[in-house]
Amino acid sequence: MAANPKSAAPLDLERIRRDFPILSRQIRGKPLVYLDNGASAQRPSAVIEAEREYYERHHANVHRGVHTLSQEATDLFEGAREKVRGFLNAASTKEIVFVRGTTEAINLVAQAWGRPRLGKGDEIVITWLEHHANIVPWQQVCEQTGAGLKVVPIDRRGVVDFDAYLGMLGPKTRMVAIAHVSNALGTVLPVEKFVAAAREHGIATLVDGAQAVPHQRVDVRSLGCDFYAFSGHKLYGPTGIGVLYGREEVLDEMPPWQGGGDMILTVSFERTTYNHLPYKFEAGTPNIAGAVALGTAIDYVEGVGLDRIAAYEAGLLDYATERLSAVPGLTIVGTAPEKASLVSFVIDGVHPHDLGTILDAEGVAIRTGHHCAMPVMDFFEVPATARASFAFYNTRAEIDALVTALGRAREMLG
Ligand code: PMP
């Protein structure tokens, strides 16, 4: 991914790796080589400590009590929201909705933005490389409203066909929902271009940033999208917490999705009035500790520096691509010129699941399967791929360990 070379000083890998306690684990008697960061990254001690400290010293419910603990919890929770706002460069904390993760964020938009507004003949445009989380919620709202789904094709490299996309935008298109980075192929989409074209037609836009925020700086205002979604657990934060960014004017016009406590101003049996943004979309007690620790994860990532992370990971990707390409019988699936730091691959005559099991015996954790992107597997006519996805704490030595383990797997299975 593109990085600013001025701020791309080398990372202190030894120190960084010490910050992540799990990286010193042994798996089956071998040092852990964790290359499944695309599925979920690991947490630094600071994040684990932030959750612990929150529970040990500050926990109470938020936005409710006048007592000290409730105020402390509220301040920490809202402080985390401000960190997310800064991280995405959103204009206001009103635009930052805490959710369970990317999946919930997209479902919220499909149901609260899409359902009341879509009708028969309306169209939602997605791409062929989407994660199921950015396909199924749209299919569901299509079933509910009579709208239809249009899918922009990809080529054999895994690049989305921009001209075909432009050809699909028309008076019936209501929403463009696209990944920023493909989890199955690593393709980085030029989302600025996609969003700008949609905006020219007055079409709403959602960007699934689950695989982008850990690897590059994201500025929602310069992107110009209406919605941006990501998950905490891929950004070195806790599971069960994520973010929906929505432009204030757009969120304002939407009805709430779920009803319950905290999302209301007044309730009577005759009439309920809804809370202000962003609370209108946060029914019930939220994952307070998760949000607080997500704020700490953002501090940690900012401390390392996203430009330095991007530059370091670009080097890892080049090295992994070169070493894996030299493995006999191995084919890389996803060869877009702009890629995030992950490599999907298949090996002749070896099922990815068998590969994953043998690699695990060597301490190497990779993901094998359809990566919740079955249409991508269909397109490349493979049942599954193996995927090594890198974080800034991974090393070239770990890529060497992966290649050695693959050699062993080929001897056993090939
Ligand atoms: N979109 C993409 C591109 C993803 O990679 C993922 C997670 N694999 C998701 C959405 C869903 O994220 P979550 O499971 O955290 O909701």
Cα-atom radius of gyration: 22 Å
What small molecules are bound in this structure? 4'-deoxy-4'-aminopyridoxal-5'-phosphate
Largest sheet: 7 strands, mixed
Biggest sheet strand line-up: 4-10-9-8-7-5-6
Stretches where pLDDT is under 50 for at least 5 consecutive residues are 1-6
**CATH level-four homologous superfamily name of the largest domain:** Type I PLP-dependent aspartate aminotransferase-like (Major domain)
Structural class: alpha/beta
CATH class label of the largest domain: Alpha Beta
Average pLDDT, to the nearest integer? 96
What proportion of the residues is helical, as a percent range?
40-55%
Distance between the termini: 34 Å
Number of domains: 2
Number of strands: 17
Q: What attributes does this structure have?
A:
seven-stranded mixed beta sheet; disordered N terminus; alpha/beta; Aspartate Aminotransferase, domain 2; about 425 residues; binds 4'-deoxy-4'-aminopyridoxal-5'-phosphate; Aspartate Aminotransferase, domain 1; about 15% strand; about 40% helix; 17 strands; four-stranded antiparallel beta sheet
